[in-house]
Amino acid sequence: MEETGFFKKVYELARQIPFGRVCTYGIIAKNIGSPQAARMVGWAMNKSSHEKEFVPAHRVVNRKGLLTGKNHFGNTNTMKEMLESEGIEIIDNQIQRFEELLWFPEMND
């Protein structure tokens, strides 16, 4: 798949993640038809700041709810601060109540 087409699909889905909720790299990869491409979703999130339309990359975390992408926000506290501003509690880079806050695209809520 062409990288830009893949990234576009990732960004379109990431923009649907509701305020105060999170999604994982793997869930996004599966829902755009590339279930083995979770790492590539991470690369897309790393490059999302170059997009004209905002991509809420801070809402995309690993499958355990860890802030593994935090180093790509300029300041390592930025991702945590953005999530906390949405009411998400983070302790030791781990989202609290992760299962409860996890968003699945097919839920459409």
Q: How far is the first residue's CA from the last residue's CA?
A: 29 Å
Rg over CA atoms: 13 Å
- Corresponding CATH architecture: Orthogonal Bundle
Main sheet summary: 2 strands, parallel
Label the structural class.
Answer: mainly alpha
> How many DSSP H or I helices?
5
Structure characterization notes:
- The chain is mainly alpha-helical and 109 residues long.
- 37% of the residues lie in helices and 7% in strands.
- The protein contains five helices and four strands; from the N terminus they run H-E-H-H-E-H-E-E-H.
Short description:
Helix content is 37%, strand content 7%.
Q: What distinguishing features does this structure have?
A:
4 strands; 109 residues; two-stranded antiparallel sheet; mainly alpha; single chain; Arc Repressor Mutant, subunit A; 37% helix
Question: How would the blueprint of this fold be written?
Answer:
Blueprint: H1 3-14, E1 23-24, H2 25-31, H3 38-47, E2 60-61, H4 78-84, E3 90-91, E4 94-95, H5 98-101
Parallel strand pairs: 1-2
Antiparallel strand pairs: 3-4
Helix pairs in contact: 2-3
